[in-house]
Write a structure and sequence with these properties.
Structural class: mainly alpha
Shape: globular
Strand content: under 5%
Number of helices: 8
Distance between the termini: 26 Å
Largest sheet: none
Helix content: 40-55%
Radius of gyration: 15 Å
Number of strands: 0
Number of domains: 1
Length: 174
């Protein structure tokens, strides 16, 4: 496992690994329809973050990305088909991160939190706006800042926003 998971039990590690597919399912399905554009864009962001990430997340995106598409499809198959029920179930699962992130070193917890929120924003922008990118629907907007996860501020000696330079429109080779 990756060093950031030190001191966490297997269930906590699994939830951290599943957090990105869960966030994808929550945001992509917030409007009732998990479309292929959102799934494809989430996969591209996974690839980008596999090689472009802050040191505090070293190994995380490589680990999650190795099985991301498969895990996302499995998750979608097992979640309720009703939008409200699905959103509640995923939100309740993600809320469990409130017990996990504070167990990590402060810099790691803050980077994970920021990473999750920016990932949600990228997925939300995948299917709206000009040419299908850039706009967040009202339904997605309810979840895009992941209100079920308590905000973890960056420690004073940390980097303010590890994904500030991340270009959403960056192309990734398939």
């Amino acid at each position: 496992m990756i060093p950031q998971f030190a001191g966490l039990n297997d269930a906590e590690k699994k939830l951290l690994i599943d957090a990105i597919p869960m966030i994808t399912a929550l945001i992509a399905g917030a409007d009732g329809n998990i479309d292929s554009e959102e799934k494809e864009w989430a996969s591209k962001i996974m690839k980008i973050r596999g090689y472009q990430h802050p040191p505090a997340l070293e190994g995380y995106y490589e680990l999650v990305g190795a099985e991301f598409a498969t895990r996302l499809d499995q998750l979608i198959e097992t979640l309720p088909s009703g939008t409200e029920e699905r959103n509640k179930m995923v939100s309740d699962e993600l809320a469990q991160l409130n017990d996990i992130l504070p167990k990590m070193a402060p810099l790691h917890g803050a980077h994970f939190y920021q990473s999750f929120v920016t990932f949600a924003e990228h997925v939300a922008k995948a299917s709206g706006g000009f040419l299908g990118f850039g706009s967040i629907s009202r339904e997605e907007g309810k979840f895009v800042e992941l209100p079920m996860i308590n905000k973890i501020d960056m420690p004073e000696d940390g980097i303010e926003d590890p994904f500030a330079d991340e270009n959403q429109d960056q192309e990734v080779e398939d």
